[in-house]
Write a structure and sequence with these properties.
Elements lengths: L3 E12 L2 E12 L3 E5 L6 H9 L6 E6 L2 E2 L10 E5 L10 H11 L4 H14 L15 H13 L5 E5 L7 H18 L2 E6 L2 H7 L2 E6 L2 E6 L1 H6 L4 H6 L4 E9 L2 E4 L2 E4 L9 E7 L5 E3 L6 E10 L4 E7 L2 E7 L8 E5 L6 E4 L4 H8 L2
Helix pairs in contact: 2-3, 2-4, 3-4
């Protein structure tokens, strides 16, 4: 495993009477692409600003490469930030925008010229040196903002929802560009977004947050396939989250029907949450599944059909490449491996932390 580069220790932060981060601990490793993911107000941008030095925590420490940088100003940290609003200097051409930080550091002209050429080549905008930012598209401006950051050779690049203002096609293109640049540069990326698909597409490591707490962290595959609570399951992609009872190991009662599953260790006759992804629900002939239902709604999404199926009083969300028309009677089958069982919150306080969006 790569070495730890950043460690946040017992970080708390309030704005007025609003607690934004509560005793948060987080490790970020070198050369990783880490995404802080969560709804608005969950604390992800505050974490980024604390790492960048733009906010100081009320309690706790920021350790960077083994050194305490909690009180260090932003310009003395080995990192750069790219914001959603690119903050390019409109009165300067692109070359001067990129060179701004290098001139402050009093680099010589030859070094600056080489760095400008390298950065523009990296972001695919060679020949744009003498253009003004106002003549560029949103995606091009975003690339210049990244070029301006990377010429300073930071160990860490902080990105605060930098693709939020772009249209869908351009945003997808820039996602692949950022992944490519990360691999070429060997820089650690810390990326803030509320877009689940963006996080799953780009990240090595995802940190899911809600109300100032880390709900779960891990690889995109782990976060999607093994959510630790109902908030994560619901926030990362679509899910059927159903009140259930763990009858015994490998048997769960969902909607008054017993289903085989693979989970163990929950006890017997214990209330739990069952999570089933819509793409894991298989529609079969009536009588050949675990329960029967009726298709009540259908939308064509291009890649698949999204259907609602009413069964045992529950509206199942189903995604399939096979279309079943509204009114059709169907059976519902789910492979035991695709039924995820989770403990219910033990208290109202825990529930607020875990599942209150």
């Amino acid at each position: 495993m790569a070495k730890e580069l950043i460690r946040l220790e017992n970080i708390s932060k309030s704005f007025g009477k609003t607690l934004v981060l509560d005793d948060l601990n987080l490790s970020i490793h070198e050369n990783s692409f880490v995404t802080l993911l969560g709804p608005s107000g969950c604390g992800k941008t505050t974490i980024l600003r604390i790492i960048g030095g733009f906010e100081k925590p009320d309690t706790g420490r920021v350790i960077f490469d083994g050194k305490d940088i909690t009180d260090l100003p932003p310009n003395e940290r080995q990192l750069n930030t790219v914001f959603q609003k690119y903050a390019l200097f409109t009165h300067m051409d692109i070359a001067d925008n990129i060179a701004f930080g290098l001139k402050i550091r009093k680099k010589d002209k030859s070094y600056i010229k080489d760095k400008i050429h390298y950065a523009l080549k990296l972001v695919g905008l060679e020949g744009f040196e003498h253009r003004k930012p106002t003549s560029l598209s949103g995606g091009q401006q975003q690339r210049i903002a990244i070029a301006r950051a990377i010429v300073n050779e930071p160990k860490v690049l902080l990105l605060d929802e930098p693709l939020g203002a772009l249209d869908l096609k351009l945003r997808q293109e820039m996602q692949y560009e950022l992944i490519r640049m990360k691999h070429e540069l060997g820089i650690t990326f810390i990326y803030v977004t509320h877009d689940q698909e963006e996080a799953l597409t780009m990240s090595d490591h995802i940190v899911v947050m809600n109300q100032g707490y880390i709900q779960q962290e891990g690889s995109p595959e782990d976060i999607y396939n093994e959510p630790e609570n109902a908030f994560v399951a619901d926030f990362i992609g679509d899910s059927n989250i159903i009140d259930a009872v763990m009858v015994r190991d490998r048997v769960v009662r969902i909607l008054d029907t017993d289903w085989d599953c693979v989970d163990t260790g929950f006890g017997e006759m214990k209330p739990v949450d069952a999570v089933i992804r819509p793409e894991d629900v298989e529609l079969v002939s009536p009588g050949s599944g675990t329960m029967d239902g009726e298709v009540t709604h259908i939308i064509f999404k291009g890649v698949h059909y999204e259907m609602e199926v009413t069964a045992n009083g529950f509206e199942w969300l189903v995604q399939s490449t096979v279309m079943h028309p509204v009114g059709e009677k169907v059976g519902i089958h789910v492979d035991p491996f695709n039924i995820q069982i989770m403990n219910k919150p033990a208290s109202e306080d825990e529930e607020a932390i875990q599942i209150d969006v």
